[in-house]
Structures are given as structure tokens and as C-alpha cells.
């Protein structure tokens, strides 16, 4: 069976200055292929160094490092075959890594108003799929068109430099722009002025090296900027692997957002730590019914006045001590990780905590009522707890007063 023409060697219309099959008959552009090794070294190191960042700040940062590695693999496939499919893989991987970096690291104040992070992720996914389809329709112009993505990237980096308080981030941004300009010049000359540089047809290899350095440095500085803007309480700091403690070698190492075990309890939720007595309620019967609680238990629940004590025994624990006249319950939830526990129907569920608009939000999944979202809002000595059964869109509200 004959392979489709798009997979055939040299089926791409794009061909670089390096002479084809000069070094070995198995690889079309040998040096352009092997220079992608840098993409297989630096992003995997960063994905390891960034594990803690992802867990503490709840950013799926592993995607961006995985995609940058895939850029390298796609480029290896492309330069070794110069096939049209290779070209598409190379271009689509670049598109995805840029879209992913924007989705993850643009601070909330830079998102289109009034979009929340989740909706922004969805919008970026739709845009990425749309651009991917366009890539398939017109592969010839993509590799030129993709360069226009550099304009917002550089604009974001310059803007971040103008508002960050960190000298390290400003310096990293300058260095990444320097590598990008050097890389882009090499790309342009190799692509358009090959006849003038035929004595040295390896500028595209240098583009691979320079753009990889520029891209990963700008991602590191942008991730740091995101942490600084969104979670200043996590005391973000950049360290340089492997020269972490040697000041004079700092900028030679691979920078990453420094390790911090857990985030200190954020200021905006610290005032939740108190004993609260219920003073009123709205729609609780409907909400409990939507959550699957039987009539008899609901009648008891709505008529019981509740006292609840919240505390943060350490930076990573949210403690709930809940009492009514007929029952009491103590529960512990991790702030940085998902907590497995039983729900009120004695089913195994998982809860995660996060801060949204300054309030502590808990989302519980896995039980028969589906997702349950609980928001705790403190205003002075008043606490409002809103519990929503998401799939039925029913919310019950309890009002509490702080006990002195
Ligand atoms: C919040 C934003 C922060 C900035 C994020 C920047 C993310 C950039 C990520 C990846 C870009 C990697 C590009 C690698 C290309 C390697 C493969 C390759 O050489 N392909 C060529 C064919 O072999 C192809 O012709 C190249 C096409 C051009 C791609 C243009 C990419 C624009 C990259 C913008 C980088 C901005 C760096 C920021 C510097 C301040
Ligand atoms: Ca060539
Ligand atoms: Zn290339």
C-alpha cells in the first residue's frame, strides 16, 4: 500500500538552507534535526522543578513543558523528513504551546472582563482548535503567520516588566527578548537570504537553540509574574538550577520558580477562623432535597441551629468542627491537595479548596448529588455560607454570627 503523499519525504514546500541528505542518507537536514535536542533537555528539567509550583498554585504547568518538548519532537520529525505532515506537526505544536502559556500565566486582571479563569481556559481551547483547523487548511503560510504570535508575547513580557517589582523578572525578560531577536534574525536570514549565506547554511540550527532559550526564559518569568500578581502570599522567588546558592553563577543556570512546600493561609480567608452561630437561612430545604436528602432528615436539618468552628491548624489544613443539638462532626481538608472523605450520604467523595474573589470555595465531587459548591463569605462579624447543588442549580444559604 502506498503511503499518502503528505507523509512522503520532501513533500513539504518549506526547505531550509542546510543541504539535504549531506551528512547521512537517513536524515534530510541533519544539523537542523539534532539541534532540537535542546527541547528534549530543558523543558523536562523544568517540568520536574515546577512540580511544586503546579501543586501549590494549582496551575497545570506540566502541560506547557510537555508541549515545549513536543515542539522539539515535531521539529525533529519535520527536519528529518521535510514532509508536509512533519511541517504541520511542527507548526501545530508551536501554536499549542503559545496558547497554553497564555491560558496559564496571564494574571486575572489581564483576562477579558468579566471572564473567570475557567471560562478563559474554555475560550483558549476553542481558539486553539480553530487555529489548528486553519493550520491544516493552509500549511504554506503558517510558518510565516506563526511569527505574528510573537507580537503579543513580546508585548506581554514588556508590560509585565513595567509593573513587576522583581528585578530578576525584569532581567530575565530582557534576556529572553535578546535571544528571541537573535533567533528571529537567524530564521529570517536562513529562510530568505540563503544564497548569501551558503558558506554557513546552519542559521536555522541557531534559531532552534535561541528560540528554545528565549521561549523557556519568558515562560519562567511569566510564571513568576503570575505568582507575584495572583498569590503574593506564596512569596514567589526565582532560583537557578543547579547553581542555587552561588550568587555569581546564578544567571548561568536554568531558572525556575522556587520551591515552597505550602502556601501560607491567605490573608483574605484568615478571618474565617472563629466560632460561628447560625442566625438564619434561605432555601435550605430545597437545596437538601436537590442533594438527595430524604424528607425526614431534611425536616430535622432545617430546624436545627448549627454552630461551626473553623480553624487553620497549619498552613495546609482547614479544620471544620460542626455541632448541632443532635450531632457533631469534625473534618479536616487539605488546602493544597484534594481531600478524600465521606459526604452526608456516607458516599466516598473528593473535595478541593481554593480562593475565588477573596472567599474560600470548596467543590465536592464524586457523590450521587454531583458537584456541590460551597462558598464561605465573611463580612466583619457575619458569615454567609452558600451551598449549591450544581447540576440542579439550587442554592441554599445559611447566615452566621461570630461568637466572641
Ligand atoms: C504569557 C506569554 C509568555 C511568552 C510565552 C512564549 C511561548 C513561546 C513558546 C514557544 C515558541 C517555540 C517556537 C519553537 C520553534 C521550533 C520549531 C521550528 O523551528 N519551527 C520552524 C520550522 O522548523 C518554523 O518555521 C517556525 C515557525 C515560527 C514560530 C514562531 C514562534 C513565535 C514564538 C514567540 C516566542 C516569543 C518569545 C518571547 C520572547 C520575549
Ligand atoms: Ca534544506
Ligand atoms: Zn526548525
TrEMBL record:
SUPFAM superfamilies, per database record: Lipocalins
Residues annotated as transmembrane: 30-48, 60-80, 92-113, 120-139, 145-163, 175-193, 199-219
Major localisation: membrane
Entry keyword ATP-binding: no
EC number: 3.5.1.23
Keywords linked to the UniProt accession: Hydrolase, Membrane, Transmembrane, Transmembrane helix
Catalysed reactions, as listed in the record: an N-acylsphing-4-enine + H2O = sphing-4-enine + a fatty acid; N-(9Z-octadecenoyl)-sphing-4-enine + H2O = sphing-4-enine + (9Z)-octadecenoate; an N-acylsphinganine + H2O = sphinganine + a fatty acid
Topology within the bilayer: Multi-pass membrane protein
Subcellular location as annotated: Membrane
One Pfam family, short name: Ceramidase
Family per record: Belongs to the alkaline ceramidase family.
Protein name per Swiss-Prot or TrEMBL: ceramidase
Amino acid at each position: 500500500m502506498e503511503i499518502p503523499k503528505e507523509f512522503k519525504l520532501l513533500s513539504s514546500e518549506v526547505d531550509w538552507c542546510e543541504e539535504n541528505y549531506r551528512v547521512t542518507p537517513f536524515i534530510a537536514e541533519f544539523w537542523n534535526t539534532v539541534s532540537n535536542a535542546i527541547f528534549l533537555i530543558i523543558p523536562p528539567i523544568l517540568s520536574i522543578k515546577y512540580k511544586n509550583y503546579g501543586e501549590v498554585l494549582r496551575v497545570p504547568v506540566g502541560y506547557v513543558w510537555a508541549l515545549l518538548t513536543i515542539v522539539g519532537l515535531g521539529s525533529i520529525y519535520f527536519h528529518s523528513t521535510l514532509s508536509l505532515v512533519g511541517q504541520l506537526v511542527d507548526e501545530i505544536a508551536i501554536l499549542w504551546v503559545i496558547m497554553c502559556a497564555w491560558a496559564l500565566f496571564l494574571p486575572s486582571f489581564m483576562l477579558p472582563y468579566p471572564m473567570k479563569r475557567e471560562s478563559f481556559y474554555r475560550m483558549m481551547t476553542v481558539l486553539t482548535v480553530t487555529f489548528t483547523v486553519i493550520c491544516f487548511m493552509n500549511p504554506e503560510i503558517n510558518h510565516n503567520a506563526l511569527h505574528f504570535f510573537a507580537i503579543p508575547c513580546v508585548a506581554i513580557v514588556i508590560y509585565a516588566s513595567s509593573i513587576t517589582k522583581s528585578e530578576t523578572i525584569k532581567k530575565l525578560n530582557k534576556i529572553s527578548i535578546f535571544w528571541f531577536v537573535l533567533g528571529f534574525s537567524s530564521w529570517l536570514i536562513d529562510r530568505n537570504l540563503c544564497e548569501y549565506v551558503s558558506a554557513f547554511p546552519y542559521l536555522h540550527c541557531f534559531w532552534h537553540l535561541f528560540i528554545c532559550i528565549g521561549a523557556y526564559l519568558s515562560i519562567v518569568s511569566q510564571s513568576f509574574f503570575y505568582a507575584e500578581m495572583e498569590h503574593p502570599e506564596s512569596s514567589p522567588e526565582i532560583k537557578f538550577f543547579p547553581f542555587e546558592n552561588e550568587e555569581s553563577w546564578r544567571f548561568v543556570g536554568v531558572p525556575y520558580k522556587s520551591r515552597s512546600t505550602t502556601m501560607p493561609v491567605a490573608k483574605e480567608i484568615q478571618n474565617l477562623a472563629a466560632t460561628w452561630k447560625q442566625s438564619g437561612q434561605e432555601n435550605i430545604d430545597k437545596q437538601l432535597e436537590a442533594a438527595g436528602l430524604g424528607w425526614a432528615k431534611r425536616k430535622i436539618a432545617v430546624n436545627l441551629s448549627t454552630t461551626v468552628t473553623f480553624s487553620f491548624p497549619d498552613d495546609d489544613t482547614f479544620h471544620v468542627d460542626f455541632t448541632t443539638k443532635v450531632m457533631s462532626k469534625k473534618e479536616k481538608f487539605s488546602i493544597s491537595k484534594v481531600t478524600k472523605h465521606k459526604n452526608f450520604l456516607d458516599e466516598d467523595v473528593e473535595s478541593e479548596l481554593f480562593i475565588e474573589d477573596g472567599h474560600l470555595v470548596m467543590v465536592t465531587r464524586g457523590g450521587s448529588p454531583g458537584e456541590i459548591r460551597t462558598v464561605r463569605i465573611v463580612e466583619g462579624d457575619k458569615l454567609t455560607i452558600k451551598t449549591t447543588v450544581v447540576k440542579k442549580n439550587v442554592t441554599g444559604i445559611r447566615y452566621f454570627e461570630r461568637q466572641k
